[in-house]
Amino acid sequence: MVQSTLYYAIPERVREIPVADGNIIFVPQDDTVYLDMANRRYDYSLIHICETELDRSQVSPKTGFYFVEETNTLWR
Q1: pTM exceeding the 0.70 threshold for the entire prediction
Q2: Which end of the chain is more exposed for a tag (fewer CB within 10 A), N or C?
């Protein structure tokens, strides 16, 4: 099992974080999340950031991902 490490970063700092399987990097400025697996870094856009689960439940369904800051949970 791979240990996950969660990061918050600004776009300019993402390249400074070494690629390591299990890394999850949130970049709120450009609504992107990066996931490291198989020794590669993959980026995913369309991240909708919500403060609470209640906020997430009130948002109209959209394609993409939702990150809830209150619970540190990523939803698809």
Answers
A1: no
A2: N
